[in-house]
Amino acid sequence: MTATAVGAPAERREARLKVSGTARYAAEHALPGRLYARPVPATIARGRVTAVDASAALALPGVVTVLSHDNAPRLGDADDPTLAVLQDPRVPHRGWCVALVVAETLEAARAAAAAVRVTYTEEPHDVTLTEDHAEVYVPEKANGGYPAVRERGDADGAFAAAAVRVDATYQVPPLHNHPMEPHASTAHWDGDRLTVYTSSQGTSVVRMTLAGLFGLPQERISVVAEHVGGGFGSKGTPRPDVVLAAMAARETGRPVTLALPRRFLPCTVGHRAPTVQRMRLGAGTDGRLTALLHESTTHTSRIKEFVEQAAVPSRVMYAAPGSRTVHRVVRLDVPTPSWMRAPGEAPGMYALESAMDELACALGMDPVELRIVNEPESEPDSGKPFSSRHLVECLREGARRFGWAERDPRPGSHRQGPLLLGTGVAAATYPVMVQPSTARAHARPDGTYLVEVNATDIGTGARTVLAQVAADALGVPLDRVGIEVGSSDLPYASLAGGSSGSASWGWAVHEACARLGERLAARTEPLPPQGLTAEADTSGTADADSPYARHAFGAHFAEVAVDTVTGEVRVRRLLGVYAAGRILNARTARSQFVGGMTMGLGMALTEDSTVDPAFGDFAQSDLASYHVPVNADVPDIEAHWIEEDDAHLNPMGSKGIGEIGIVGTAAAVANAVHHATGVRLRDLPLTPDRVLTALSGGG
User: Fold this and answer.
1) Fewest beta carbons less than 10 Å away: which of 60, 425, 608, 609?
2) Using a CB cutoff of 8 Å and minimum separation of 24, what contacts does 527-534 make?
3) Percentage of the chain modeled with pLDDT above 70
4) pLDDT reported for residue 3
5) pTM for the complete prediction?
6) For residue 498, is it left (φ>0), alpha (ψ between -120 and 50) or beta?
7) CA geometry: angle 486, 490, 491, nearest 5 deg
8) Which pLDDT score is estimated for 631?
9) What is the C-alpha separation between 678 and 82, in angstroms, rounded?
């Protein structure tokens, strides 16, 4: 049978459950006798708790208990220090959990949390990131295990000798994930067995973590995340909500639900760390780069080192004989940063692609052609050949679809009344990541199939795509394949992160189904009543070293209108073209690309977070003050892809698509604003106050 399921725009399998409201999320498991928990956050930026007075809270109706470091159960050693909650009196940052109220109702828990009185000994704090901070240092590694520093050739000498130079600094503020479903967990103990329903991108990691913290064998823990309302990286590793819920459930002997209030998320579940990035590009008059220097400075907390790998994409994109990429970090009294969609690539490519646009202007060269001229023959950092790299095709196809040839390159040349119009372009890249996973495929006597894999569907359509992979591997119609995901009791699978989910899980599903198909083909008698099963484990293959550099690529184009009266920037068009291997589902893929581009638009224009230096708190802590883009902000957005056949990836020939959509969008928008106005703004977001100040010559 010819494989037809993969690539088809199949409808998402859980769609009806979600639109009908019957899909149950972590906080919606109404177990008998359920209690509700609410954390009490620290109100100082650094210091120690000296006393927790819970008497007023305990006197309120419905309050069961109040836990603090004085009476909370002791936990085992935590590999992640952010999970060592209620274990000691220290306060490493504002918002740190210093007590936990457990009550019969959500309302009672909220009222009691407000009634808890905590006293502190305060210590001096520092929450302000500067490039020349006295305590800045170069770590051994940046996130992902990347070396903090990479050098090739004489970068300084090449830059000094370059005919054309760009030396500019770009800043990206702290950014927050803000998934639609806040972080939530419902925990229940049955003797020494723990069951947790949690909003997580990977239940296997949660189970392993809870086993260590509570001193249990993993087989006594079940973690379920059947439906997850978004994560964008913030649910990639366990967060305090799941630990606190399990702790409270053990202490009370009853099920406990803890759903973090949205205002608690910025200080509790991680954020994209701010970056100050100095870019220096040197080139000849023909546009070919001779020097590329990318230095990124960021912050981390005092309890855990997390270094945003913003300079890493500059090691991949363009060839330059002299290059240096450096990461620096400062330990501050801030919440620990963590993963946020396209960590490293999103802020790093904003700086690189903005600098490339500045270089194109300095050269008087078309910015599309500048990128094409600097196309490398192999990956600059490793020297490995690319398994596939069709960035040039993306740029050409995007330019054709966008009408780039009709563009007047002169900044500020297109005006409609008070509006200045402009267009911009940026390239994008994201690495191909694949992790080992296991899967089980089962054939039933009635001709249907069940595939089991502990994948997590965080709203991306993973169930549907995996069923498509299975149907093609088995050679059967899609409607004959059932799929179960989202439970640690299923065969182990890696977490949903790094755009690695479909590639990792799909590899295991494909192998399990292929083996099942072989066993079925070898049979001459009917299936037994219990059916037939095959399993697969991709350890040693999916994680094997590759002789190829494997990346997805893309090109982003933007058209903006800048209001010279109000300073408002309106994006009229966004267009993205991607080279991401074989597209497994045209419908869900387009949705992922469009979602990433929309998030990139928010990064460019609306999303802003500042740390109050006096209080040590994020000033924008809810969706009234932290502005995410909405439908009205993107009148016209298109996502396309080119056909890419790459035999060096996985059995499906697919690359991750969840994150590359965000990577180049902010730079494309910012470059379009420069083309519209002739003024270069380098600090995100491009808010009306900044635009007006720049237009008036103030910066």
Assistant:
1) 60
2) 527/443, 527/444, 527/445, 528/445, 529/445, 531/442, 531/443, 531/444, 531/445, 532/442, 532/443, 533/440, 533/441, 533/442, 533/443, 534/440, 534/441
3) 99
4) 56
5) 0.97
6) left
7) 115
8) 86
9) 45
